[in-house]
Amino acid sequence: QVQLVESGGGLVQAGGYLRLSCAASGRTFSSYAMGWFRQAPGKEREFVAGINWSGSRIYYADSVKGRFTISRDNAKNTVYLQMNSLKPEDTAVYYCAARHGSYGVFTSEYAYWGQGTQVTVSS
User: Fold this and answer.
1) Looking at the DSSP assignment, which residues form a beta bridge with residue 7?
2) What are phi and psi of 45, to 5 degrees?
């Protein structure tokens, strides 16, 4: 089992940047694929980015490709989401999630979730 805690959210102007972090407990972090999801008010939770256990396979939603970068540091039990060129439509609660095996793009594929961190982008 793994526990996840996100941090780094906040209020930023359009065009700005934020770096989210997700710290995981447990000694088997490197065995998990990790994903970032987001949920805007009144909308379903959606996939943002995923990374496999080693960082060798990465996948992004089309809406963030070229602006967001997912990475991980297994020595620090942490996964990151660097968000550049932020837009008002990026406003959401951002969640990190963990699963065994390769990364997935559906919420149902992930067994473990953090509590989320709010990202607000003003226009």
Assistant:
1) 21
2) -65, 135
Per residue in 65-117, pLDDT (tens digit) is 999 999 999 999 999 999 999 999 999 999 999 999 888 999 999 999 999 99
| Sequential DSSP letters for 74-114 | TTTTEEEEEE-S--GGG-EEEEEEEEESS--SSGGG--EE-
DSSP state of 53: T
55, 49 in Cβ contact below 8 A? no
The string of DSSP letters for 15-50 reads T--EEEEEEE-SS-GGGEEEEEEEE-TTS--EEEEE
Task: Determine contact, residues 19/7, Cβ cutoff 8 Å.
Answer: no
